[in-house]
Design goal:
By secondary structure, the protein is mainly β. Helices cover about 0% and strands about 55% of the residues. The protein has no helices and eleven strands. Strands 2, 4, 5, 6, 9, 10 and 11 form a seven-stranded mixed β-sheet that branches. Strands 1-3-8-7 form a four-stranded antiparallel β-sheet, with no helix packed on it. A hairpin with a 4-residue loop joins strand 7 and strand 8.
Length: about 120
């Protein structure tokens, strides 16, 4: 089992920044790939960014490119999502996920709310 705990969400104005954190515990083998997803009210959950164990080859959704940066600290282990230039359309619950593959995420956090006011 892996436990994922997100933090860092909140209310921010358009153009502001937030840094989300996701602390993992348990069988960290299953944190080989860690990712962020988000779900806005009335919308399906969507992929935001992912990163593998080495920290190389981070991958972003088009909506996140150039504004968001995913990183990880394997010593903790924790994954981060630095979000800059936030827009009202970024408002959502942000979820951390982990797994052995970029195509399957076995563990999910409870989510952290991000609200961007216009």
């Amino acid at each position: 089992q892996v436990q994922l705990a997100e933090s860092g969400g909140g209310l921010v104005q358009t153009g502001g920044s937030l840094r989300l954190s996701c602390a993992a515990s348990g069988r960290t083998l299953y944190t080989y790939v860690m990712a962020w997803f988000r779900q806005a009210p009335g919308q399906e959950r969507e992929f935001v960014a992912r990163i593998n164990w080495s920290g190389g080859s981070p991958y972003y959704a088009e909506s996140a490119k150039g504004r968001f940066t995913i990183s990880r600290d394997n010593a903790k282990p924790t994954v981060y999502l630095q979000m800059n230039g936030l827009k009202p359309e970024d408002t959502a619950v942000y979820y951390c996920a982990s797994g052995l593959s970029a195509f399957r995420y076995d563990y999910w956090g409870q989510g952290t709310q991000v609200t961007v006011s216009s």
